[in-house]
Amino acid sequence: MYDPKSRVAEEFICHEEILDTLAYAEEHKHDRPLIDTLLEKAASFRGLTHREAAVLLACDLEDVNQKILDTAVRVKEHIYGTRIVLFAPLYLSNYCVNTCTYCPYHAKNKHIQRKKLTQEEIEREVIALQDLGHKRLLLEAGEHQKYNPIEYILESIKTIYSIKHKNGAIRRLNVNIAATTVENYRKLHEAQIGTYQLFQETYHKESYKLLHPKGPKSDYAYHTEAHDRAMEGGIDDVGLGVLFGLEHCQYDFVGLLMHAEHLEAVWGVGPHTISVPRICPADDIDPNTFSNAVPDDLFLKIVALIRLAVPYTGMIMSTRESARIRTEALRLGISQISGGSRTSVGGYTLEPEDEGENTAQFETSDRRSLDQIVKWLLENKYLPSFCTACYRAGRTGDRFMQFAKTGEIATYCQANAVMTIKEYLCDYASAATRKAGEEVLKAELPKIPHEKIRAAAEKRLIRIEAGERDFRF
């Protein structure tokens, strides 16, 4: 029986409820009075239930689909303005005991080069990332009790936070590692991680079993209930995601929103982030072998509808996607992107002749440098942000949501984004990027809604120009 307040995976992600929802959506996909009501609700930033969003996803009326996209643009602009948060993944190890059929790290892959970074190698990677201008990282590692135990992860977190190089520092470290115990989540919380991210891959239980034949990840319930254990362990910012293309996207779209509703029902806090990766080429993985590929137009509609359904959540898109798709997705809902990413272990310090080293998890489509990404955002009138202030000011979990759902978070976010991009322009930007950035700053500074914070930010920009760093509201 479907119960969003249950802690049992099969009850808060109920197969029958998803099937009923999809049937309801098909029945009502041309119900214009209902659709108008749903779009009106979404436009008022009240979100949508999984069933309401499914109706809009099923709708194939051209004018309605355009209204969906237009409404998503307005909601995105209202809540996030032009701010785009930047981050980079840091892969520690590709040793893994699982046999996931869509991931080249799978244990049976004999031609991928296995590698695990030492603490000294991690330090070099972090310095390289700091020299690019990154302040926020996402830590990644395969699941392997011998090579990647929780002790290794914790030691690595301590190393990463300890490195101060020139004006560089990692101020927020998010973590994407395998489902684990409440005790281990408590240790991660004590290590002061930011968001704990874990992707479900697919919510279809039978498909999940086929995609994960062996290994700890094959336990569907244990994996699906991981975010609840993380919350129990004190981590109040968690991130969801599915790998679109593994299962029918309509099914996983509904499951994803049900998971968000479950977290809200049980913990009073929905997901801090939702990621939208699509299956893409990788060593030993051919996406053409998966029959549920999601075409670009449908994928972008999904992005728009997640924004409408869960307006307060940060939405993440990686360099899996091309520059063209990321350009469209930024308008429709994406608020965080990776830049200058390397998905290989040790990829940020590889010598040019070693760039083909076979340790990557997936191929990147958007291969531009961080500076090129920042310049591209600035030229498109976005405000790139390296902000980590909420996490360090204690605005996490329900405290963050209080500000996010009312829109008050913009008071802090706009000022912090302005100051962090100013740091980037002073320390790392090319001449062309700095020129574009100063023009955007002139336009974005007056948008800080609180007069006293705006005045304080103006003074701090002068101090940043003079060499001071790490201001935040």
Give the terminus-to-terminus CA distance. 45 Å
Sketch the major β-sheet. 9 strands, parallel
What is the overall number of helices? 20
Task: Return Rg in Å.
Answer: 21 Å
CATH fold-level name of the largest domain: TIM Barrel
CATH architecture of the largest domain: Alpha-Beta Barrel
- Total strands: the figure is 11
Q: Can you tell me the CATH superfamily of the largest domain?
A: Aldolase class I
Strand content: 5-15%
Mean pLDDT across all amino acids? 94
Give the CATH class of the largest domain: Alpha Beta
The residue fraction in helices comes out at 40-55%
The outline comes out as globular
> What number of domains?
3
Structural class: alpha/beta
Low-confidence stretches are: none
